[in-house]
Amino acid sequence: MDISRRMLLRGLGGFALALPFLPSLDGKEAKAGPPAPPRRYIALRTEHGGVLGSNLYPDEATLTKSMPYAGYNVRRGDLKLSVSGSRAGLSPTLTAGSDRFTAALAAKMNLIRGLDMPFYIGHHRGGSLGNYKDSDQANIVGMMPAPTCDQVLAWSPKFYDNLSTILMRSMVVGNGKLSWGWSNPMDPASSTVQDIQATDSSLALFNKIYSPPMDPGTKRPPIADLVLEDYKRLRNGSRRLSGDDKKRLDDHISRLDELQRKLSVSASCGNVQVPTKDSTSLYSDTFFREPDKHKEYWQLMNDVIVAGLVCDTSRIVTVHAGAADWFSDYVGDWHHEIAHESHKPDPQKVLLASKQGFFEWVFLDLMEKLEAVPEANGGTLLDSCMMFWTEESGPYTHDPISLPVLTAGGANGFLTTGSYIDYGNQAVIGHDGKDDPANEVTHIGLLYNQFLGTTMQAMGLAPADYEQTPGTGYGPFYDETATWFAGYGKYTDKVKKAAGEILPFLKA
Amino acid sequence: MQSRMLFPPLLFGALVLGCVGKLGGDDPGDTPTPPGPSTSAFACKAGLTPPSVPLRRLSRLQYLNTLGDLLKYALPDEAAAVMTGLDPLVAAIPIDEKQGPSKHFGGFTRLAQAVSQEQVEGSYAVANAAGAALTSTPTRLAKVAGACAADADASNDVACLDAFISSFGERALHRAITSDDLAFYKKVAGAAPFDAADWADVIGLLLAAPEFLYFVESGKDAVAGSKDLYTMSAYELASRLSYHFWQTMPDEELLQHARSGDLTQDAVFEAQVHRMFTDPRTRTTIGSFYDEWLHRDDVAELTSRLGTPAFDTLRGKFTPDPTLRESMFTEIVDMATHYSLDTKGTLDDLYTSRKSFAKDANLAAVYGVPVWDGKGEPPSFVEPERQGLLTRAGMVATGSVNTRPVMKGVFIRRALLCDELPPPPANANAKPLEPTGDLTAREEIAGLTETGICAGCHATVINALGYSTENFDAIGRFRKNELLIDGMTGVLKGMKPVNTSATPHVVPTDDRVAKDSREVSQWMLSSGKAQACFARVYFRFTFGRAEDVTQDACALADLDAELEKGTDLGAVLARVALSPAFRQRNFGE
Description:
The complex is a heterodimer of chains A (about 500) and B (about 600). Chain A has helices at about 25-30, 55, 105, 150-155, 200-210, 225-235, 245-265, 290-310, 335-340, 345-370, 450-460, 465, 495-500; strands at about 10, 15-20, 40-45, 65-70, 70-80, 80-85, 85-90, 95, 110-115, 170-175, 180, 195, 315-320, 385-390, 405-410, 420, 445. Chain A has about 500 residues and is an alpha/beta fold. In chain A, the strands form 4 sheets. In chain A, strands 3, 4, 5, 9, 10, 13, 14, 15, 16 and 17 form a 10-stranded mixed β-sheet that branches. A 3-stranded antiparallel β-sheet of chain A has the order 6-7-8. Chain A has a two-stranded antiparallel sheet with strand order 1-2. Chain A is globular. Chain B contains 27 helices and 4 strands. In chain B, strand 2 (about 480-485) and strand 3 form a beta hairpin. In chain B, strands 1-4 form a two-stranded antiparallel ribbon. In chain B, strands 2-3 form a two-stranded antiparallel sheet. Chains A and B meet through helix 5, helix 6, helix 7 and helix 9 of A and helix 2, helix 5, helix 9 and helix 10 of B.
């Protein structure tokens, strides 16, 4: 097989990865008829929201088609890339250099408007993936923590039907909390839900996803089996332990089981050079005033993420850009002066520049790198992905109405792409914009649970594999009881009943 | 630079800002209910049993301290080098974040008890690497396990290994090694003769053992009349003492008392509590208690706005150093540690002290006092208004142009009085504090929050506590007048006298108007709520779990009563180990 330039993934961090070692590119498989590559799941989340609809979405006039759904008309249109000079874009936020943001890439995206959490959540850390509990302002009686959808996938035998190469069931990347999993993933029923610490070090991530070839001289077996036996010896011995003590030991034992599994992984990425630069080496007191460093930071991280997917040592990625002021040189109190002032003209400009930077240098950069990797079935790595970017809040900070979602990839043909979709019910207003500096109006839409459920089905799971209650999509369902919530009492039974379905316009 | 500092938590933005109620605010049912009093009197009744809590793991700090001490025990002169070699693997073990009823207010890293895949894999990797490092040369192996481990005589290998497992294992597992243990831990080495890899595996196995990573307790004797309640064994008591006061494994003296079993005798136990509490290692631990409790994560770096017009107008000729923020919190810890360990100070001293503990010239300049040398009598503040914890720079600074009465009030209410607050309403984010150059911060906050739906909490239990220190600016300097600075242009448009008087409602029924933070502090003390809250947060820190005010009432009441009596802080901090709760465990489901 020729090793073309396109097939050599060369990262910023100084490592190179020759793609022919990708199992799905193996010539023998191609002769036998290439199987579909595994599906990959990539979720990105940024902070605060606050971007005005006019800066985030294409013109309303592009929504040329509509269909009745859940009691009202939902709308879609084709995503049309506008090119102006050296820039190309779908909206002021979703803009990049025209040499990089091509019509071909735009055709692999979907831009979605009109997805809501039907209760007030404020600042939250896991809600974007279905755990609504870790919120500063949600005030729902009985709200319970739930594992996030990436973790349900990570431990699903349907998603990982073969773990022989998997070193990380999920790459949890970035800063702060986004992914939540079970204390004992092998026994969810007896588990508590806990956050999974993200890594902000591209080098640390690389060390986790890359397994160096085994030294043929190494014969000594690892001691993991005896460590496991030690825990079982205590767990099942005669010493006095409480029932809760035993559960804790069971949790640890399940982790040791996973460790043992990983010790037997025989992944080979070929002769990979270890990265020479780490994302965290860019940190300084002025880091958050230097957009060029942000660009480099995320490119280092994206290189390693793609390497993990190419090597097939992981198939799930969650990225939490857990700070508000990425891609900005603003000096000051971002949270107060920009995020919470975002509907005023000057703060909106700063916010727009920040989100545009994230789109171009994180989301699009990752898309490009995924698209550059060919698969044996003639598609690309991107085509196997369900990739999406969403924000903590909608256009109103703290508020979960009209959460923006940008997707990429078709999940091996499960999804159709190239659409701008608005699920908002134009007859039901959420925020009327009357007291807002930008007069921003939102409309009540479909439930975010339905989107997450759609992503799970795109990964091959059935609703019964992830729904807490049949027909509610992914994640628990809560109704807001506070009347001041802009969505209070506005979610109809038809909208709620639709939550378990695949979102309209998305299924291929 | 620590990435943690780069990514501060987004703290309850609504409370940071204003709270303007309109949307649906006409419904009385929507008005958040202000908090009731915290439990300032704990009802200790006979027969109360502390709740059963699951197996706790060592905190990351405790784990690393223990590893370091074990390495010192095994290989004294090369332990530091071995530990340095483990750094890359240690870095992969997740950091413990503060946890608690509220992580931002009275949360502690000891309460972080989740066990992740990364922790299990990280500690496994460290165990293997430590084993390999301790046995990497015959010389090292001989130092670690004795000459018998490295000599050419295979006939002594089994006895040599048994002796090593017994001594090293006792320290790693925090208990006496049994014959079953010997058989188990040497199984990995196979049959004698043992090579270095065999020894490395044995060490690795011990350092990955459940009793190395967790506080495994089985208890000793049943406590009469209490189902599932047992006293702790001598080894378990040794670990509890050592990990509470020193954050690491027992030393040789404590181990000797564990071995002999006499640590279960009251007199011996009390003597050990006294010895350990007066040991310098306790200072570090008590310092971390105060640091985690009183560190305000919402305060920005004081240099973050250098060069912006408004901040430059505020700071005038004063230039904050990059370390000023941390110096402010170090000063608070130094103050609290001074009164806890160096003098027979009391809780009252924390709230009334007029001494500066600024060891940093930049912070001393904020206070306008000489730098404290860390040893002698600390210098006194110049202005009488600077008195007690509430007026320390770390408690009033924001790193911004404007002060934040709301955040100050929330911190006092939640971290120092242990009161709960309901979440703010949805539209609380709509109107942030924006210096216009016309109004004081207090006037702006009052306008934003003290009408409509927000007033229920802000006007009654939040703002006034923050107003009481409005005589200190956003850098922490004393002021009589507030500069009115245009937030955008930095133009100084005038000044207004500060107003610190307000009704703090330390107790909801107390409608007195406090002149300033000095009276607020006094009322916090006289209400008993400052003492009760101290008891609660120190209980959390000690036991590594959130308190149950009903079931833990006896331990809490004991600490509370001592604080109310004016017992010196050192005695109170040590006393927790003498409580039955410290020496017993509930093994119920």
